[in-house]
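Hello support,

Our group uses your service weekly, and this is the first time we've seen a run hang past the timeout. The protein is Competence protein ComM. I'm not sure whether the cause is the sequence or the server load. Input pasted verbatim:
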Amino acid sequence: MLSKINSITLVGIEGYEVEVEVEVQGGLPYFAMVGLPDVVVKESKERVKAAIKNSNFLLEPGRIIVNFAPADLKKEGTHLDLAVAVGILCCIGEINYVKTRGCVFIGELSLNGEVRGVRGILPMLLEARGKFKRAFIPYENQFEVSFIDDIEIFPISNLNEVADTINNDLPPQRTYIDNFNKNDIQDLDFNEVKGQKYVKRAIEVAVSGGHNILLIGPPGSGKSMIAQRVPTILPELSLEESVEVTKIYSVAGLLKDKGRLINNPPFRGPHHSVSAASFVGGGSNPMPGEVSLAHNGVLFLDELPEFRRDVLEALRQPIEDGKVTISRVKGKYTYPARFMIIASMNPCPCGYYGYPIKECHCSENQIRGYLNKISGPLLDRLDLHISVEPVSFIELNREKDEESSLKIRERVTKARKIQLERFKDEGIFCNSQMKPKHIKKYCKLDEKASKLLEIAFKNLALTSRGYSKILKISRTIADMDSSEKICEKHIAEAIQYRNMDKRFWR
Ligand SMILES: Nc1ncnc2c1ncn2[C@@H]1O[C@H](COP(=O)(O)OP(=O)(O)OP(=O)(O)O)[C@@H](O)[C@H]1O
Ligand SMILES: [Mg+2]
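Update from on-call engineer: The timeout came from a worker crash unrelated to the input. Re-ran successfully.
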C-alpha cells in the first residue's frame, strides 16, 4: 500500500511543506529513502524501525520505500522521523490512513518510540497553518507555539499516542499559558546612571532613529554601564517583529521561555574573542549568528578594537543589507540581521589618551595602531560618535533623582511613531534606514540650516556619507522635537555627534 503524509522542513528560518510518500511491500528486507534527504534524515531508517517495533506494532520484514517531495528541496534534520513512521503505520493498517488527511506531523523519534522535541517548531507551524487543519508536534515543543490558534495542535509524547489519537478521534490535550507578557520586568534602569546628560541625550537620539553609536572614553567612565541600559528604553516589538525574532531563536534552539513570544528587543553582547562563524552565522549545519540573534534589537560590541579583523569586516553586509547570506555546498541560507550597533572603546591601549584625568603612557605608534584597528569604512558606519567623560565625585554623590528608563522610553516611542507613519508606504521603519531618495524627500532644510551644514561640510572635511548621516540624524532630532521641518538647531546638534573622528583619528 502507498501512503502520503504531510510534514514541514526548515530552510534558513523558513518552513517549507514536504510530502512523505511511503510504500511498504512484502519481499526481501530493504529500506530506501529518496528525494534529496541529507545524512541525518537517512539515519532515521534505523530509528523509525526500532521505534515502531518497540511501540509493539508488528512490522513484518519487507520492502519499504520512502520518497520526499518536492525532490529539489534539500531535507535536513530529524523532525521528519514522525511523518515517516506514521506513513509506515498507515501502510500496515495500524493507523487509519483516511483520518490522517489534513494533518501534518513533525517530530524526532527515539528508539523506544518516544517523540522528541525539535528546533524550529515555530517557523514550521507558521508555514503549516492555513494549509493543514491539525498538527502533531512533540509535547515538549508545545509552549513555543502556544500563541498559534488557527491550527489544531496535538502535543504528543510517543508513537502509540499518535495512533490512539488518530484512530479514536481523541481531542488534543493542550496546555495553554499566557504567551505575550507585555510587562516583562527588567532590573536595570537609566536612573542608576548619575549625570552624563550629554551621553544620555545622544543615546536617546540614536535609539529614537535606530542609528548606530560609538562610545569612546577612558576606563570606568560608564560606557558599559550605559550600553547595558539601552534595552530598557527601546520601544516594544510589534507582533510582526516579535514573531520574526522568536523564529530566529526557535531555529537556533535558544528559546529560554518556551511559552512566550520574545517581545522585548534582543540585546546581544558577544565577547570580542568571537569567531566570524558564530558572529555572522555558519557551521556545517548553518545556524543564525550573533548578528541575527540581535535582529530587531541591539548588538553591543564592547571593546571594539579587540574584535578580530575578519569579524569587524563581516559586519558590513548586515549593516548595509539588513541580512546575512551564508553559502554552503547544500545551498544558500539567508538570515535577517537588522540591528542597532552600540560599540564602545578606549582611545588607546592604556585608555587615557585625550583625557587629562590621568597621564597616557602609550607611544604615538601604539595609539595609531590601536585606533586604526577600526577601519575608515566601519567608523563611517557608526553614525554617532560620543565621548564619555567620567562623572565627578560630586555628581556621583548627588541625591538628585535621575530620569527613569520608562520616561525616556515614552519619548522614544513617540518619535518612532512619527517615523512609522512617515515611512508606512516606503518599506522602511526608521530614519537610519533612509535611502538617498528618502533623504531627498524627507530631509528638507530651511535656509539657515542649510547654510550651517555647508559651513560644517567644509570645516569638518565631511565625506558624502558623513553628510547624509548628519541629515538623517537631524531628521531624528527634529522628530523628537515634533517638528516637520529641520531647523538650524537640529543640524547643529547632529553635527556635534559627527566631529569626534577629528579629535582622535586625524
Ligand atoms: N555615571 C555613573 N553613575 C553611576 N555609576 C557610574 C557612573 N559611571 C561609572 N559608574 C560606575 O563605574 C563602574 C564602571 O563603569 P563601566 O564598567 O561602565 O566603565 P567602562 O567605561 O565600560 O570602562 P572600561 O573602559 O574599563 O570598560 C560602573 O559599574 C558603575 O558602578
Ligand atoms: Mg567597559
